[in-house]
User: What shape does this take?
Amino acid sequence: MILLLGGRGFVGTAFAHSLAKRSLAFEVVSRRQCDYTRLDHLIALIDQTNPSFLINAAGYTGQPNVEACEDHKAECLMGNAVLPGVIRQACELRGLPWGHVSSGCIYSGAGNRGHAGAALGHRETDPPNFCFRSPPCSFYSGSKALGEECLQGAESVFVWRLRIPFSCRDGSRNYLSKLMHYERLLDVTNSLAELDEFVDACLYCWQHRVPFGTYNVVNSGAITTREVVGLIINCLKTDREFKYFRDEAEFMQATARVPRSSCVLDNSKLLRTGFPMSNVHDAIRRSLLNWQ
Amino acid sequence: MILLLGGRGFVGTAFAHSLAKRSLAFEVVSRRQCDYTRLDHLIALIDQTNPSFLINAAGYTGQPNVEACEDHKAECLMGNAVLPGVIRQACELRGLPWGHVSSGCIYSGAGNRGHAGAALGHRETDPPNFCFRSPPCSFYSGSKALGEECLQGAESVFVWRLRIPFSCRDGSRNYLSKLMHYERLLDVTNSLAELDEFVDACLYCWQHRVPFGTYNVVNSGAITTREVVGLIINCLKTDREFKYFRDEAEFMQATARVPRSSCVLDNSKLLRTGFPMSNVHDAIRRSLLNWQ
Assistant: This one.
C-alpha cells in the first residue's frame, strides 16, 4: 500500500489517478484526517497503515499564484521546507522508502552549455542558483530549496523535481490554460513537465527500483513562451491575440513584486533510467490535440 | 496576565524570574501542555487565558551547540522561522501585543563606522548580512533571519535581538562559562548581552509602552575575546591557561563545520527609549564579581 500525502492537490490528484489506473493500492491522506506535519501523528499513521512506499505531493504553492507566498511566509516554509524534513524523520525511523515532489524553480537560466552554446540545462548536481543562498529568488523558490536541504544525506528517498506542469485538462494550475488567460506574456525559455508523464516517471522510479536520489523530471528539451503560443494557435485554432512584455524589466515593473525563475533542466539522468520522457514540443502538441 | 512561551529554556527562565520578581502575573506554557506551533491550539490558549501580552522565548538553538542546527534543519526552521509566523497570525487575529526573542547573529562584522573607524555596529535598519540571503551563514542564523522576515510588516510586536548572553550564574549556555571550558578560543570582537539586563530591557519596552519594532538589546560597546578573558583572570583569579586559534581560518579548520557570526550591534535605539543598558565591560565585571 502506498501512502499519498497531499493527494487532493493539483499534483496529488494526478498521482491518485495514475495509481488507480495501475490498480496499485493507495491511501490519500488529508491534513484534516491526520496532521502529518507533526512527527508523532505521521509515525502513528505509518504504524497503522503499514505502507510500502510514501509519496509527498503536499506543499504550499500560494493562491492565486506564487506571489502569495511572500505574504504567507510561515505557511510556505512549513509546507515546503519543514514538512519534507518531518517526513524524512518519520520514514527513516520506520525504514520506509518515499518520494518527494520538489521543484525545478530553484534554478534560473540555461544552465550548462553544449556545442555552439546550446542550453543543456541544470544537472541534479548543480547547486541551486535561484534560492535564498543565491539571491534574488522568490520566497517560494527559497522555501523549496530549503526543503531539499532538509533532505540532504537522506538515503531512501526520491527527490522528483517538477517544473511548470501542464496537461490536456483545462484548469487554473495548467500552464497552457494560464498562457491563454494572462493579459500579457513574458517570452522566456523553460523546461516544462506534462503532468501525467511526470507522475508516470515518478512511479516508474519506485516500481523499477531506480537508485534513490534527485531527478529532474521534465520533458526533454526546452521551449520558449512564443513557441508554446504558436502551438496553442495552431492546435486550438484560437483567434485570441497574445501580447508580450518587452523584456523582463517591463514584466517585473508591470506585474510582479517577486522575480520568477525561468530555467532549463537537464533530464538525462532520468532518461538513463530507461523512462521514455517525451520531447517538450511533442508533449505540448499532444496535450493541445486532446484538449478538454 | 502575560503568556510566556518557552519559559523553561535558558532565556525563558530568566524572563520567568524577572516577571516573578516584579510580581507580574504570568503563565509559562510548555509545548507538552499546548502545542503552540499549531495556530488553532495557540488561538485556543489565548482565548482560554485572555493575556494582555505574550512573550516568545521559544526557539531552536541546537544541542550541544549551534552546529547541531545543521543536522536538524527542519526543527530549526520550525522553531525559529515558522513559529514566529504562527504566533504573529494568532496575535493579529486576537489583537494581542507581543514580543519575540530574535538574535543579533544575523549580522557579521563591525557594521557602521564612526570617527577614526570606530565600530558603531549594525543598526536595526541594516539588512542582515549573515543569513541565507547573504551567505555564508550558519543554518541557525539563516533560520533566525527568516523568522524576522515572517514578522515583516507586523504591527504590535517587539523584536528583541539578543546576542551572546552571559550572566553571573555558571552554566552551559553562559558565554563566560563557555570561555572557561573551551579548549582554544578565537579572538573576535562582539556585542554581548547580560541576560538579566536583556530581560529587564524587554519588559521595560512593554511596561513603558515603547514604540513597537525591532531593538538591538545588547550592552553598550563591544569587547574582544581577549578582553573578556582578561576580566575573567582578574576577577576570578583563575590560573587556567587560555589558548587561542591563530586566526579564523585555523578555527574553521580545527573545529567548526559552519561559520560563526561575530558582530557589533548598535544599541542606541534602545538607549533612546530611556533604558539604561550598561557598558559591556562593566556588565561582565559585575557578573564575574557575583559569580556563582
